[in-house]
Specification:
about 40% helix; about 260 residues; 10 helices; alpha/beta; TIM Barrel
Length: about 260
């Protein structure tokens, strides 16, 4: 059994094929998927999917790349997360790769999400790109980690250094690997994945993006998460069943409101 800990099946290119997407999940033994919110206007679609399908869960949050979108307050996030199928706050974080200039609004948005996570006890889904120093700093300042009484969370679609992974894990966070880890060019990331303990790992697709080998270049979908697990099993010299079981256990340990 596998779990896709991060996907966007509400996006139009996947929503249009939803019966096929869900069938492929079942065929590939992907038992659950977490559909992740990226802005508030589209959040009702995310929630509707989670309400309709027992094995789909959801988050609420506003992605750091979305500049021209309604800004969430702590109160907004707390209110919208008060639903049994909303198991996380995010996707949130910092991204200095796509956006330039004064990004203080991005840092303030991240702080809002961390405060909502602490208020609700629901873990964070964190996106960081070209911003790892500030990401870790704000996580510490706002007490995001379980070491500071926060709910912890996951560093999703991880592409940073081992030092960043270790700093996040020290705060009680999990490290999630996507299809990127299967790419031949991702040698540095593969070294990080080898060093991260399996007990701190999640697997994801981030679909419809970043399809893993052997589907690289195609539209990604939750059923492909098995290829991420398979790659990690080979990388670590472990049975595939071991990786599947441990990453599934990790998912339920983190998103414990599912139980």
């Amino acid at each position: 059994m596998y779990i896709d800990s991060h996907c966007h099946i509400n996006f139009p290119e996947l929503a249009a094929r939803l019966p096929e997407i869900l069938a492929k999940m079942s065929e590939n033994q992907v038992s659950h998927a977490l559909c992740v919110s990226v802005d508030l206007p589209d959040f009702p679609q995310v929630l509707a999917l989670a309400e309709k399908y027992p094995h789909i869960y959801a988050s609420v949050g506003v992605h750091p790349d979305y500049e021209d979108t309604p800004e969430p307050s702590v109160e907004d996030l707390v209110r919208l997360s008060n639903h049994p199928k909303i198991v996380a706050i995010g996707e949130t974080g910092l991204d200095y790769y796509r956006l330039q200039g004064d990004l203080e609004w991005q840092r303030e948005r991240f702080r809002v999400h961390i405060r909502a996570s602490r208020a609700t006890g629901k873990p964070l889904i964190i996106h960081t790109r070209s911003a790892s120093e500030d990401t870790i700093r704000l996580m510490r300042e706002e007490g995001a980690g379980t070491d500071a009484g926060g709910a912890g969370g996951v560093m999703h679609c991880f592409t940073e250094s081992l030092e960043v992974a270790q700093a996040a894990m020290a705060m009680g966070f999990y490290i999630s690997f996507s299809g990127i880890v299967t790419f031949k060019s991702a040698k540095d990331l593969q070294a990080v994945a080898l060093a991260v303990p399996l007990e701190r790992m999640l697997i994801e697709t981030d679909s419809p993006y970043l399809a893993p080998v052997p589907h690289r270049g195609k539209m990604n979908e939750p059923g492909f998460v098995v290829h991420v697990a398979d790659y990690l099993a080979k990388l670590k010299g472990l049975p595939l069943d071991t990786v599947a079981q441990q990453t599934t256990d990790n998912f339920f340990n983190l998103f414990n409101s599912i139980h």
